[in-house]
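Hello again, I could really use a second opinion on something today. I've been puzzling over a protein and I'd love to understand its fold better. I'm sending you its amino acid sequence along with the backbone structure tokens. It would help a lot if you went through both lines with me. I've dropped the whole record in just underneath, so have a look.
***
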Amino acid sequence: MSAKQYLETLIHDLQNLQQDVKEQFKDLNEKQFNWKPSEKQWSIAECFTHLMLTSEAYQPQIKKKFADFGTLPKDEGKPNKTTIGGQLMMNMVNPHKKKISKIPAPKLFRPTQSQYQLSLIEDFLAHLQKLAQFMKDCSMLNLNKIYIHSPALSLLQFNLAEYCQLEVFHQIRHFQQAMRVMQQDLFPKA
């Protein structure tokens, strides 16, 4: 499968997620958006903030690697390779697993405030659009030969194909978490 085909699938997943976010959270008020099931659990707003913080933490190295786009290796149509770091991360964040692993977020990726405005939903939708555009921009590259490392643990690295998949898995995983917040018995009713 070419990089373009692989990324088109991920972009489609992001577009579906954008639609789901619009449909599921459009009628929330600020109290609902910021409500936490417990002190140790995140609100819907904190889930979205965490996703944006995490993606933003990768931006400096991505911008540095892409500064000279023309020199990056081009797609050769070969299947995506799996790295040890990528496989480890995929197993940790895969939203399709029957049992979701609870992983504490590194401090770098944690929301720093507890109250957010509803405009954060639009910011999050723009974030998803930005991710989709990034993946479109990568469609002609050899995703196996470009490596990204975790800003939280520099020893953990994965290739660009895995990074893109991880971004999509991570977005879906926390969308599901935000949906579980709304399904709580004590969730405010408007």
The chain has a mean pLDDT of 93. The two ends are 47 Å apart (CA to CA). The first strand starts at residue 147 and ends at 149.
